[in-house]
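Deviation from plan, reported transparently: L-MYO-inositol-1-phosphate complex.
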Amino acid sequence: MGRTMTDSSGLARRHLAAAAIARQAGDLMRRLFLDRDAIQLSFKGPQDYLTQADAAVERLVRGRLEEAFPEDQFYGEETGGAFGQSVWVVDPIDGTANFARAIPHFCVSIAYAQAHVPMIGVIYNPITEEFFEARRGHGAHLNGRRMKCSDVSDLKRAQVELGWSPRRPAAAYVAMMKRVLDAGASFRRGGSGALGVAYVADGRSDAYAELHINSWDCLAGLVMIEETGGFANDFLAGDGMAKGNPLLVAAPGIAEAFVAATGIDAKVNA
Ligand code: LIP
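Because the crystal trials were delayed, the predicted structure below was used instead.
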């Protein structure tokens, strides 16, 4: 039988399930994070951390989603999968380097997409107990409180986040950083793209840009940006879902200036 598009009741069921599973994953993450001696650290590549916690959390999330929604497909950062028409896209621990170094800035990120349109996003930091969630057409909430982007309209009053990874040359990152600073914004780098995007949706950060990021790091947050009136570039253009793309999200009042400063084209992705 062909895959049927999920109706609103199916989306509501998936939202509830994703929230419950994210909390279960958060309990496991918190336990593993606090047991510092047990953390075994390895590297998938330069500055690309992996801990046994990433694998354990993805096993939990994947198992529960496949049990609840066997008709859906699943793609996880650690075990891969397929990007079908009805798919869960999961990063079990976004901010793995922080997790490995006992820095409490990381989260589980669970997104659900239909025909490559992100419909549900759940991002949970179990250390700060911050639970970000959104379902398309139903708003975005942090611990039950409605979120909205900041109303900043001047880059000289903005604080933004610039994501980094060795997936693009350091010179390109440094050049973007200089243009953003020359435009008057201050910036930080938190090490979790998912939390970086969620913070823009919540108005505590005014924009987030990264020269290359993967879908599992940002898809959940893109639903939140959509639901809070934020601006997002066309991250899913081309094969963004499977191969990643440059990402830019921003409060609407600085979106045009931030696009110009970062050089990340709103429509066409490099
Ligand atoms: C991280 C991303 C972040 C990027 C880091 C890393 P991970 O994901 O969320 O945007 O800058 O290099 O890729 O590896 O912690 O799941």
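Residues 86 and 127 are 31 Å apart (CA to CA). We consider this an acceptable substitute for the interim report.
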